Amino acid sequence: MQPTPKSAHKDAALTNVAIGYRPAMFAADRVAPYVSVRKQSDYFFKFQKGAWFRNEARMRGPGAIAARGGYPLTSDTYACKEYAFGHPVPVELVNNADQVLRPFETGVRYAMRKVLLAKEVIVSAACMTSGNWTSSNDVDAGWAAGSNSTLIADILTYKETIRKLIGIYPNKLLIEAKTFNTIKQDPTVIDRIKYTGTQGRPADVTTQTLAQLFELDEVILAGGIYSDAEEVVAGTDFNAVDLWEVNATKGAALLYYAPSSPAIDEPAAAYCFNWKGDAGQEDTVAESDVYRSVRYWWENDRKSWIVEASEYFDFKITCADAGCLFYDTIVT
Question: Across the chain, what does the average pLDDT equal?
Answer without folding.
Answer: 90
